[in-house]
């Protein structure tokens, strides 16, 4: 295989230094009392949002060694996910093996990156497979994230939602991805949404809480703005766009609105909140757009896995293809880069 140009020292160093043991999460979000007046002050200009996202990528160009470094960084922020009805323990264990070694060793060697320096940010599974994933990832420092609260619809009884969270934490999940009750958002019942997420936060105990807004279901950017803020008030450590099961999942428009709410919340409380787009982020080109969004709107800290995650499965294969192209000058077939 032809030798690839060395990565620039600053970007290479930032990639190599990502992990040295268990994931170090950002500070927990303690939440705050519900404040309806804060919600009343929030506004969103849809035309301005669309103009901003339309020019986001056209004003930036990430090429060659810089692109390779950004894509390696993206790998470390992936919540490698399998959420299918035909999941098996064997599939989950293969996924965990890929999370430990997400990029082929020969490609990392050509890039001058130590294989142990690159793992995915987490593995995301249903509760049924949490214990198997924890066992398969033992010693890696990679956390297991469990989808919970009746994912993806979130319409099971509230006490069962809390028991599901507690069961996943007991099995070793360090992150819980919950779905909110869309009805509360669609009817403007913000107090009920706050109370629900506050209960979820308590049930999580030491595990980090990621709240899924299901932005394709709650319809308007105004709803996205308010739901984002309510979830952060209630103690969410991350806000997440989608389950991946809606008709419309992550978009740059929705993501821009959500990350600006994160900025607003941090300015008022001093607490940094993480962001996770999920569903539809399946190509290297698309993930670069989200990385640029995070860097420009929130800053360098939001390119790291403690504050930025991407819910994805097929994305990893496309990133590996792009890295192989950088190393060899040739594109390989997609099926040569299986996820698990």
**Roughly how many Å apart are the termini?**
24 Å
Helix-strand topology string: HHHHEHHEHEHEHHEHHEHEHEH
Number of helices: 15
Number of strands: 8
Note the beta-strand portion: 5-15%
Short description:
Belongs to the DeoC/FbaB aldolase family. DeoC type 2 subfamily. This protein has helices at residues 9-16, 36-40, 46-56, 64-75, 89-100, 105-111, 130-136, 158-170, 182-186, 190-204, 215-218, 221-233, 252-269, 284-297, 314-328, and strands at residues 78-81, 122-126, 144-148, 175-179, 208-212, 238-240, 274-276, 310-312.
Protein model, in words:
There is one protein chain. The chain is of the alpha/beta class. Helices cover 47% and strands 10% of the residues. The protein is built from 15 helices and 8 strands. The protein has helices at 9-16, 36-40, 46-56, 64-75, 89-100, 105-111, 130-136, 158-170, 182-186, 190-204, 215-218, 221-233, 252-269, 284-297, 314-328; strands at residues 78-81, 122-126, 144-148, 175-179, 208-212, 238-240, 274-276, 310-312. The longest helix is centred in the last third of the chain and has 18 residues, at 252-269. The model is unreliable at 16-24 (pLDDT under 50).
Topology:
Layout: H1 9-16, H2 36-40, H3 46-56, H4 64-75, E1 78-81, H5 89-100, H6 105-111, E2 122-126, H7 130-136, E3 144-148, H8 158-170, E4 175-179, H9 182-186, H10 190-204, E5 208-212, H11 215-218, H12 221-233, E6 238-240, H13 252-269, E7 274-276, H14 284-297, E8 310-312, H15 314-328
Parallel strand pairs: 1-2, 1-8, 2-3, 3-4, 4-5, 5-6, 6-7
């Amino acid at each position: 295989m032809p030798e690839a140009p060395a990565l620039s020292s600053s970007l290479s160093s930032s990639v190599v230094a990502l992990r040295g043991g268990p994931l170090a999460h950002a500070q927990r979000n303690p939440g705050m009392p519900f404040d309806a007046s804060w919600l009343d002050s929030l506004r969103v200009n849809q035309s301005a949002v669309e103009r901003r996202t339309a020019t986001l990528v056209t004003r930036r160009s990430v090429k060659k060694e810089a692109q390779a470094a950004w894509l390696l960084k993206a790998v470390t922020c992936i919540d490698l996910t399998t959420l299918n009805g035909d999941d098996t323990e064997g599939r989950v264990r293969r996924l965990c093996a890929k999370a430990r070694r997400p990029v082929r060793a020969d490609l990392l060697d050509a890039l001058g990156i130590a294989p142990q320096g690159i793992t995915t940010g987490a593995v995301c599974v249903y509760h049924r497979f949490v214990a198997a994933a924890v066992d398969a990832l033992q010693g890696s420092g990679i956390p297991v994230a469990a989808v919970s609260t009746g994912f993806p619809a979130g319409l099971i009884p509230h006490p069962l939602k809390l028991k599901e969270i507690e069961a996943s934490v007991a099995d070793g999940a360090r992150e819980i991805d919950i779905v909110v009750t869309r009805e509360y958002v669609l009817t403007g019942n913000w107090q009920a949404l706050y109370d629900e997420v506050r209960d979820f936060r308590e049930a999580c105990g030491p595990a980090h809480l990621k709240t899924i807004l299901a932005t394709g279901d709650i319809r308007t950017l105004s709803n996205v703005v308010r739901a984002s803020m309510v979830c952060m008030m209630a103690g969410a450590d991350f806000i997440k766009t989608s389950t991946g099961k809606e008709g419309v999942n992550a978009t740059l428009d929705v993501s821009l609105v959500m990350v600006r709410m994160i900025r607003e919340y941090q300015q008022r409380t001093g607490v940094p909140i993480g962001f996770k787009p999920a569903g539809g982020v399946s190509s290297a080109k698309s993930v670069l757009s989200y990385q640029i969004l995070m860097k420009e709107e929130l800053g360098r800290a939001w390119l790291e896995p403690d504050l930025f995650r991407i819910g994805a499965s097929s994305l990893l294969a496309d990133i590996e293809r792009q890295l192989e192209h950088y190393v060899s000058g040739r594109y390989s077939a997609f099926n040569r880069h299986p996820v698990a």
